[in-house]
Amino acid sequence: MVLFDLSPFAKFEVAGPDALEVCQTAATADIDVETDKAVYTLFLNERAGIELDGTITRLGPDRFLVVTPSFTQQKTAAYLNRIARGKAAVVFDCTAALATIGVMGPKSRELLSRVSPEDWSDDAQKYTHGRTVEIAEGYAYSLRVSFVGELGYELYPSADIATNVLDALWEAGQDLGVKLAGYHALDSLRSEKGFRHLGHDIGPIDDPYSAGLRFTISMDKPGGFVGKDALLKLDPAAPAHRTVYVALEDPEPVFVHDETVYCNGQPVGRMTSGSYGHTLGSAVGIAAIEPDVDLSGDFEVRCKGRLYPAKVSRRPFYDPKGERLRG
User: Fold this and answer.
1) Percent helix, strand and coil across the chain, each to the nearest 5
2) Which residues contact 225 (CB under 8 A, 6 or more apart)?
3) Which end of the chain has fewer CB atoms within 10 angstroms, the N or the C?
């Protein structure tokens, strides 16, 4: 049972009669969804490279909450404002106005029910859905998403009551074994689950097909999106590289990133990111390898000058079906 302070996440509200048009143009996914539904999406450049990733939650017919990685606040602002120029929509940076508290782990429902009168069952709030809840001494927007691969919630209280909410969760969770965790723990957990990290696993030179994120693309939505024309010229079956998941068999070495990946003694790619997977008991991460490599071959990764046997998979090693997120 863990609490994360995720307040540095970049947060923007897009509102106005043309808000849906702005979000649809920015996002590769279809954002025309029901109110309080969150959608994971990419934001491309005109060459179909990945400039940003994040979630867009529909707060109402003409209101959307866009959440992107912490270090992309200015980039996200520029990207959205460029698309909104001349439209009947405003882009409001609410990063400082809203805190973000991650409540993650199998006991997150029990903990939240101790500080909130709301129903925290699966029926009350489905995975990837949000709602406004009473919690501690105020209200917050609760979004049921998780970057750690476990059942969890992101709470978005206004900044003025964030400390009260965090303190209430901390005090109520002592007998549940609640812990405070930071970004190294977050990186370890997301590496086990295979979630991409912008700037390491994906970036402006990576297209969605090579990144293994084809599921974020909605080619049929009205109006298209930035980068669609370039994406149409790419063959999904012939990516520039293949994104795979890698775990070492030896429990001692640790990934940093950029380690060389070998197959049958030949270099075939590199680790784009990785960490020590404490649940799996070994180093684990994501790699970009040549697209025609036989995944049944003998793989090794060079760590600190030594080659270590590795397992390579098309699916994450931890909870590949995502059942724990939906539990």
Assistant:
1) 20, 35, 45
2) 24, 25, 26, 27, 28, 44, 218
3) C
Gap between the Cα atoms of 185 and 59, Å rounded: 30
197 domain residue, yes or no: no
CA–CA separation, 96 and 245 (whole Å): 35
- Record the tokens describing residue 282, joined without a space: 């070994």
- CB count within 10 Å of CB 108 equals 25
Cα separation of 241 and 228, whole Å? 20
The CATH number linked to 320 is 2.40.30.110
Domain count within the chain: 3
The runs of H, that is alpha helices, within 27-130 are 73-84, 108-115
291, 311: one domain: yes
Cα–Cα distance for residue pair 10/77, rounded to 1 Å: 9
Largest CA distance in the chain: 60
Same domain, 89 and 168: no
Four-CA torsion 264, 270, 274, 276, nearest 10 degrees: 30
Overall average pLDDT of the 274-280 stretch: 95
Provide the β-strand partners of residue 40: 55
Q: Residue 45 maps to which CATH number?
A: 3.30.70.1400
Q: What's the pLDDT at 322?
A: 92
Domain limits for position 26:
2-93
Note the pLDDT of residue 137: 87
Is the per-residue pLDDT at 327 higher than 90? no
30 and 196 Cβ atoms separated by less than 8 Å: no
pLDDT tens digits, one per residue of 146-196: 999 999 999 999 999 999 999 999 999 999 999 999 999 999 999 999 999
Domain boundary among 93, 118, 146: 93
**Integer Cα distance of 248 and 255 in angstroms:** 9
Geometric angle at alpha carbon 80, from 75 and 85, rounded to 5°: 125
Sign of CA dihedral 219, 287, 147, 90: negative
